[in-house]
Amino acid sequence: MSACELGKAQGMPTVPLSNGFSIPVLGLGTSHDGGYSHDAVVYALQKCGIRHIDTAKRYSCESLLQKAIKESGIKREDLWLTTKLWHTDYGYEKTKQAYLESCKRLGIEYLGLCRSIGVSNFLIDHLEQLKEDCRVTPHVNQVEYHPFQRPQELVDYCRSRNIVFEGYCPLAKGEALNHSNIVQLAKKYGRTPAQICIRWSIQNGIVTIPKSTKPERIWENCQVFDFSLVEDDVAILNGMHDGRHISWDPTPIV
Ligand SMILES: NC(=O)c1ccc[n+]([C@@H]2O[C@H](COP(=O)([O-])OP(=O)(O)OC[C@H]3O[C@@H](n4cnc5c(N)ncnc54)[C@H](OP(=O)(O)O)[C@@H]3O)[C@@H](O)[C@H]2O)c1
What we know:
By secondary structure, the protein is an alpha/beta fold. The chain has helices at 38-47, 62-72, 92-106, 124-133, 152-160, 180-189, 193-203, 215-222, 231-238; strands at 7-9, 12-16, 22-24, 28-29, 52-54, 80-82, 118-120, 140-144, 164-168, 207-208.
């Protein structure tokens, strides 16, 4: 899917989900690692057109996000918010309870449970297991995705089941930004290495959620819709996959 084939909403291209909703192809990550910046989130919402924020109970910033979203003045219905439960919340009743607690911390009335259901770090085996136990096919699978980690078999599997593939750590936590291929492509296109990585994810049809606590970097990371990588350059980046995980490897989870 090319970026120009994606629908547009509030100026940010979106990707359709199997349930009829659409997720902005570019979101803002948040995290407990590397801090959280209230000003950066407000700036992203007010000045950069960000309408998709990724968080998790584990990041301990849901209640901080509530403040930033309020201050931004952006309405709940114009925002795509993802949060994630922790594995200690598994189970029907515990999940419902944890979901309500997340809503409370975020100061919102609805989230994924009612609208779109996602999983994270699910490999093909995990998704196959899930098929046996659940009636609903997840709408999204959020998995590590950057030039060193491009799990194409999983991407293809997700596509075959209409599960949108969302890639986290698109900059490999910054590790990809000094790689000579990426530095050279940045020079060639007159862009930054981060923009090359983000654009590559999007051109590969991957929803992507780079994190930054710095307003100027968030602005930079959003300027990826006015250029495109030619096929040969996408192939160079595709060829960089070496299987390394910058976050963690979910393979041993059964
Ligand atoms: N589901 C999961 O298991 C899981 C796991 C990991 C992450 N995630 C999600 O994915 C999001 C992104 O992942 P991530 O933060 O680990 O990795 P990332 O987005 O690949 O990289 C973030 C790092 O790159 C730096 N950075 C951002 N933009 C930059 C730019 N334009 N130039 C130079 N450096 C830049 C950031 O520093 P500054 O903040 O100082 O700018 C930060 O150190 C997270 O926030 C989280 O929402 C999910």
